[in-house]
User: What shape does this take?
Amino acid sequence: MDDLSKVAYAIADPVRREILMMLRRTPLTAGDIAARFAISRPAVSRHLRVLRESGLVRDQQIGRHRRYSLARSRLGDLAAWLTQFDTQRVDWSQRLGALETEIHRTRRDRNRDEPADDQHTARHSEENTA
Assistant: This one.
């Protein structure tokens, strides 16, 4: 099974997706994770093993406890693959770059026009006083 298939298999289960949601804010111990489910601790341990083997979570032994944390880079690979199918996706960085370019052009054009307006206004002022 390739890496992308391992990640897709791991997130196919709703319990594993819930564990990933829990880990996105902070690392948790296996006991903390198991306490939030109505399933047995061995069942939660099997889900954590699948997530660990897919590379979506990392574990660290701290004393008697094992602490799990999310490995976001593996989700990025899947997200990049899924993006190919999303034709409605808005590329905000490209749009913001275009907006920045348009603002720059508008400011440049206004700066070019302002001296002409000042001379025109000054000429009218001289005509009115004469």
